[in-house]
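agent: user wants the full assembly modeled, not chains individually. Plan: 1) parse entity lines 2) check alphabet per entity 3) run joint structure prediction 4) return tokens. Steps 1-2 passed, two entities, 603 residues total. Proceeding.
--- entities ---
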Amino acid sequence: MTAPAEAAVRTVDLHKTYASPRGDVPAVRGIDLEISRGEFFGLLGPNGAGKSTTIGMLTTLVIPTSGQAQVCGLDVVRRPVEVKRRIGVASQNNTLDSDLTTFENLEFRGRYFGMRGAEARRRAAELLDMFNLTDRRGASPFELSGGQAKRLMICRALVHRPEVLFLDEPTAGLDPQTRVNLWEMLRELQSEGQTILLTTHYMEEAEELCDRVAVIDHGEVLASGTVDGLRGAAGADTVITVTYDGAVPSGVDSLRGRDGVSKVEVSDGQVRVFAREPDGLVGELVTVGASAGLGVTDVSQLRPSLETAFLTLTGREYRE
Amino acid sequence: MSTTTAVTARALRPTVAQTFVAMMAREIRVMRRNFVSIFIRVLLQPLLFVFVFAYVMPKIGAAGGGGLFAASHAGPTFSTILVPGLVASSMIMQGMMAVIFPLMMELSWQRSITDRALAPLPIPLLAVEKIAAAGLQALIGGLLVFPAVLLIHAKGQAPSVHIGNWPMFVVIMVVGSLLAASGGLLLGTLIDPQKIQVLFALVLLPMTMLGCVYYPWSALHAVRWLQIAVLLNPMVYASEGLRAALTPQVGHMPAWAFLTALIGGTAVLAWFAMRKFTDRVLT
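--- prediction returned ---
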């Protein structure tokens, strides 16, 4: 099991069900993943899709109900300590050690992972510098802004040079500028060969950063592959959504089966057309409404993207 | 830049012992920095107590002093009764609070416990580390109260303290500290953080008042049912153990009894605490 091509992360039919007073709540329902070394992999899905639970299992803190998960070829349930030595984790919550300063958070993380004092301090200084936090070195985690805290958590995950870096929603709640800066830093990490598994509910984040993504919802992988591949396979359609001020007129059925139109979905007051050739369709839908005496209250047109892929796969609009 | 020489860099393979020691180093760094605020909360109560009962009350001629316990002047002074009791209560309180307060924060809200849980250490050993760190605080808390209870008293009310049995004294202090820390960890994992006020009202206060801190256990024979009921209180064994070690002239519980309770109690509480803690950290 020590083949050089051993995956950085591999899961087989991974399940997690939480017991609750109101019965069992399945959070992850059979996830298979295989992530190679050096890859930047994204788990994309809305809140509550099962992303954090999956990360929790891979980082040994959530015990799977069934199935297997390995990190660097090591089983996460049977050899958690060895797994923990090889991974760095920046969780979604602010889990910084509030009794320590910014600098000490990194220093002690290094020491937990076997660095000597001087080595840990050197590494801490180096990371603070890289992530533009040097002027906050003496600050308590309470005094950091949201973006600074996120950056510090990523630094902390990197202190011991982990083989696999797990980032759970690293940019959630950050302002756009801070987010773009962080993306820049993550790209740089990857260019140096860092294996990264990132979860996000931002479509554009996955598109910007990841080599491959798995789209997950309700604890299942709906599709996975390269971003381009997913767009091509599931999301090559433009999605047009038209909302009428009454029930959808039957005239829209004339679009079904037409060349270039892959799917027409009707729900109360709203029609959604998935089309490879969207030209003129909006006008047609407005006309169909008008001839039935209906006005149009909302129109949207989404160009092919992970977002349309998600719509195609789930039939539901992506909510961030 | 050398952030992620992950694949090429010398791999760090800390032993579990190294990680454990590093975590203790973190606790000591925090303890040193917050020394005053950490210890004041526990030391103030015994300081005031000994000030009022061993100094002010005798001065104003209240029924303080030996009169409380010994009908004749031949009996021990109240301050003699208080020395082991207050050392024990400081130690036990410090040990429990040292683990409960941080744990309440770590297990609720942001679950910052994941910070430590991701260090390369088995989770049950993380519990042991918490017990060791809180035990250290308990020991310091107990020792810090010594000078005060020895020195604060009115004229003629000096406590009569003599450590006749050093090994016994050391064992009681160390095991008592670990007992408090283990009990604290168990309570901290069982109690809902919202109910911390209840913990103080229903657990810590009765533990002190009924912990043979202010009176020796043997004196309770006058209230037999209480003498038996308080045997459920771990504080009793720490107080009585220290009474045996520091003021053996005052009647105390037999050594086999308090040693069994302290050592056995520590083992049982630590074991349960480790299990509950692991359950809380891993989901």
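agent: reporting back. Residues 78-107 of chain B form the longest helix (30 residues). Chain B touches chain A at residues 1-9, 11-16, 18-19, 22-23, 25-26, 29-30, 34, 102, 105, 110-122, 281-283 (CB under 8 Å).
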